[in-house]
Amino acid sequence: MKKKLYPVALLVLCGSVAIAQSDHDKKSSDPKPEPSMIEAPEAEECSLPLDTVKTVASDSISVSEPEDFPVVLPDSIPVNEPESFPVVLPDSIPVETIESPGDETPDSLKEIEPEMTDEDTVKIIDGYRIHMIKEDGVVTYEGLDLFSDEMKQVIDRALLEYIEKSLYSKSQGSNDEGDRLKITKGNINDFKIIDQSTPFNVSNDSKEMRVEWQHDGRSTVVSIPISYETLTSGNRSEIENKFISRLRAGNQSRKFVSGPDIDKLQAYGDSLYILPGGLYRKKEINRNTFYLPDSDHTPVWNLSYPLESVANLFILPSPLYRDVEIDLTVLKHEYGEKETFPIRLDHFLSICEADGCVPFWGVEKFKDGHLQGALFLYNYPKGYDHVLRIELDPAKLISGEGRVKGTASLFIPTNNIGTLYQPYRKKTEKEIIRYEKFK
Q: pTM value?
């Protein structure tokens, strides 16, 4: 009689997992393949050695099989396994069930939602390097990858990102009527070559701003009409309201200057020094600052020099007058609307300077201890000015009792500033307040 063996096999499953990690914090300046195009390592083929798959057989499992009639299997087959590897075969395989109330779909059968993640990547689409930012799975920025984050901080983030987004739209065939950027030299295909490492320069002439890249022995130029509303993609009323909200929130200060450049100081009168600053269209509107002749060259802030003290107040950051407050009235773009609120002058100037504005101060009238003047906060990259009409009593202010009163017009296009110089044109030589000539 022959014996027929029934082996019981233990099946072992195996697999491999490839984990790819991408660095979102640093972007190479050299073109690199799109992350989605980079091939992931293939899963390793399961190749366990044969000796890891055990076949268990028992010599005691046998069936008598007469050669001349069919095999009759008993109702049960006793299996005696070795003690070192016991195997228990259950009568049935238990299946875990998930109970769900009512008609709700079990979690195991629900469609898995995509994970909401943040992402900052550069992809290559049709030969263009596209910088994409996602927040909570939502695309918040798409533009050509032309300028580094460091460069955006140095020049102007709003301007450079406007250029990146506009050129991205053009690279995708978009023809947005609101897009005022023009490629004045070269063509859109040049930006398949231009990237963060390509040299460029920025210039303007009060009417438009130009960016020029040098590459492959030639240049590509784009131009944008100078308009803060264009660069920020908003109307003037919205921009004003956002700016006012920033003024009302927080309480920041300008960074104090440790001391003047001594080599640039000039004698002023008999007992002071002056550090000449830049002029804004007229010599009476400038950035001059004044210092005492002590070893520390302390900024002037005393009753003996009221005009020089006030000039320092608006131009030179100093702890001597950091707490001076201004009652600011904003004449809003919508006719007849205005908003008045108190604010620390240093906080106001800090917000403006953080946006790229440079302050220039000019005195219009000083009579009977009452001073009137104008503060121009000029933003060269964005082509606008904030202009404040100022009134104050220097004696009260320096003694710690007075306040500054200011009436502001915000985001005035720089090419319209000429109309604000009428008070200077009307005054006679005797009426114009000017500092003594340098000695």
A: 0.55
Q: Crossing angle, helix 236-248 and helix 345-354, to 10 degrees?
A: 130
Residue ranges of domains in the chain: 119-232, 236-426
pLDDT digits (tens, 9 = 90+) for 263-309: 999 999 889 999 999 899 889 999 999 999 998 899 999 999 999 99
CB burial of residue 323 (10 Å; 0-12, 13-18, 19+): exposed
Name residue 163's amino acid: I
**Cβ neighbours of 199 (radius 10 Å):** 10
Q: pLDDT, tens digit, for every residue of 378-429?
A: 988 777 899 999 999 999 999 999 999 999 999 988 877 765 544 444 444 4
Q: Which residues of 392-420 are buried (b: 16+ CB within 10 A; e: fewer)?
A: bbbeebbeeeeebbbbbbbbbbbeebeeb
**Calpha distance 160→148 (Å, rounded):** 10
Q: Which residues, at least 6 apart from 356, have a Cβ–Cβ distance to it below 8 Å?
A: 156, 379, 380, 381, 382
Contact 116, 85 (CB under 8 A): no
